[in-house]
């Protein structure tokens, strides 16, 4: 079964064809980053306009690369939630029109569930799925239940996963998403946009112990696995000197600030951001007894997060390949195939939603 998947929830205009839920035949991602970089963040109006301009060409290219005409497609999937409403509507409307015109089954899917599904996709011509910490010999699909770690620019969720479409949120950020914190810190320091990849790269040459930033303490209460990024973000942005770790002789760590600070700030921030996630995630693993963790979303590309999880030898940690961590159409087509194979269909009257209940904590 060959499924066309369309993703337009934010600033990537993407389409892909996936066969039988796992084999990627094509995966086209047209990024709008240069158009938003000048504003240091996604401008929703520009995003939806670019999607409108590009969607036809992106879908056409995905069909061409798969070696298919529209007649070779068996079903269509598109992201319907969560995301930027105007952007979502472009891909969703295009997908519905494609399905209607070709008399094809159509399914509207959830972006975050699709991120979770990404690690089940095999790269083109590569037989088994996903990157796994133990290396090539341990590549089998995880069996349910397992823990999901969904970390993107809009959401940060720790969940119990009982099926590809069945998650229970155990913990979530109570304010900023982790990717959002990377983006905002990067914006403040003028490191570049989007911030995650830039900070990850800068951190490679920095000292992660140059600054000791505060970890939020949300242990108590009804949601023991919740976490927060607002305090870390504010600390990194506003009160840098206060957090500088003093060297033995009592002076600030180093002299030529312009030469080393960027990397040190990036490394110290990144380390703390990852530790915040890990603290809740490892506690959730211990309490639930679940020993497999599947990650997804743009922040799952982070090298520090991958390295720290790889150190947890008692856990099996599965990440999507780097190119499938960020937004892409393959994850939409892949999960779409699973729904369609089960007989699920969405009505063409379905609309987009910016939010999904339960994905973000609402505190009084
Ligand atoms: O999943 P995604 O592509 O889009 C959303 O659904 O939001 O995630 C984008 C987020 C951005 O905040 C970006 O800065 C972050 O993922 N990101 C990273 C890395 N690569 C992308 N964050 C940390 N380290 C990275 N290597
Ligand atoms: Zn995403």
Query: Going by CATH, what is the homologous superfamily of the largest domain?
Result: ATPase, nucleotide binding domain
Tally of domains: 2
Under CATH at level 1, the class of the largest domain stands as Alpha Beta
The poorly predicted ranges are 124-139
Average per-residue pLDDT, rounded, comes to 91
Query: If strands are numbered along the chain, what order do they take across the biggest sheet?
Result: 6-11-10-7-8-9
Rg is 21 Å
What compounds sit in this structure? 5'-O-[(R)-(carboxyoxy)(hydroxy)phosphoryl]adenosine, zinc ion
Distance between the termini: 47 Å
| Number of separate helices | 11
Order of helices and strands: EEEHHEHEHEEEEHHHHHEHEH
Short précis:
The chain contains eleven helices and eleven strands. By secondary structure, the protein is an alpha/beta fold.
Detailed description of the structure:
The chain has 364 residues and is an alpha/beta fold. It has 2 domains: 2-121 and 324-341, Nucleotidyltransferase, domain 5, CATH 3.30.420.40; 136-319, Nucleotidyltransferase, domain 5, CATH 3.30.420.40. Helix content is 38%, strand content 18%. It has helices at 33-37, 44-66, 85-102, 111-117, 178-189, 195-203, 230-238, 240-243, 257-288, 303-310, 329-341; strands spanning 2-7, 12-19, 23-31, 75-81, 106-110, 131-132, 146-151, 156-163, 166-172, 292-296, 316-319. The strands form 2 sheets. A 6-stranded mixed sheet has the order 6-11-10-7-8-9, sandwiched between helices. A 5-stranded mixed sheet has the order 3-2-1-4-5, sandwiched between helices. A hairpin with a 3-residue loop joins strand 2 (12-19) and strand 3 (23-31). The longest helix has 32 residues, at 257-288. The termini are far apart. The structure holds 5'-O-[(R)-(carboxyoxy)(hydroxy)phosphoryl]adenosine (KG4) and zinc ion. 5'-O-[(R)-(carboxyoxy)(hydroxy)phosphoryl]adenosine is lined by residues 10, 152-154, 179-180, 182-183, 194-197, 200, 297-299, 301-302, 326-327.
């Amino acid at each position: 079964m060959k499924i066309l998947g369309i993703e337009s929830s934010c600033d990537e205009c993407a389409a892909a064809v996936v066969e039988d839920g796992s084999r990627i035949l094509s995966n086209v991602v047209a990024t709008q980053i240069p158009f938003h970089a000048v504003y240091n963040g996604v401008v929703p109006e520009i995003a939806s306009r670019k999607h409108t301009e590009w969607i036809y060409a992106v879908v056409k290219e995905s069909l061409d690369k798969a070696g298919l005409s529209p007649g070779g497609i068996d079903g269509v999937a598109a992201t319907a939630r969560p995301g930027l409403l105007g952007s979502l509507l472009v891909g969703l409307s295009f997908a519905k029109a494609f399905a209607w015109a070709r008399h094809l089954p159509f399914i509207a899917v959830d972006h975050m569930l699709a991120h979770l599904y990404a690690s089940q996709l095999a790269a083109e011509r590569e037989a088994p799925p996903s990157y796994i910490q133990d290396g090539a010999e341990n590549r089998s699909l995880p069996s349910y239940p397992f823990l999901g770690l969904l970390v993107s620019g809009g959401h940060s969720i720790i969940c119990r996963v009982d099926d590809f479409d069945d998650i229970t949120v155990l913990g979530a950020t109570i304010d900023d998403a982790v990717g959002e914190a990377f983006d905002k810190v990067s914006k403040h320091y003028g490191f570049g946009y989007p911030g995650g990849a830039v900070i990850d790269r800068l951190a490679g040459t920095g000292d992660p112990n140059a600054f000791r930033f505060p970890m939020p303490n949300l242990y108590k209460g009804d949601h023991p696995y919740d976490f927060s990024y607002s305090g870390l973000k504010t600390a990194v942005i506003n009160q840098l000197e206060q957090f500088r770790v003093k060297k033995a002789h009592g002076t600030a760590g180093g002299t030529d600030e312009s030469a080393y600070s960027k990397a040190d700030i990036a490394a110290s921030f990144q380390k703390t951001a990852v530790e915040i996630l890990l603290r809740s995630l490892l506690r959730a693993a211990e309490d639930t007894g679940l020993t497999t963790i599947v990650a997804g979303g743009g922040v799952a590309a982070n090298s520090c997060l991958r390295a720290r999880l790889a150190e947890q030898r008692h856990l099996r940690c599965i990440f999507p390949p780097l190119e499938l961590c960020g937004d892409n159409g393959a994850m939409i087509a892949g999960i779409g195939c699973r729904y369609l194979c089960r007989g699920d269909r969405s009505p063409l009257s379905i609309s987009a939603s910016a939010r999904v209940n339960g994905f973000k904590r609402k505190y009084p």
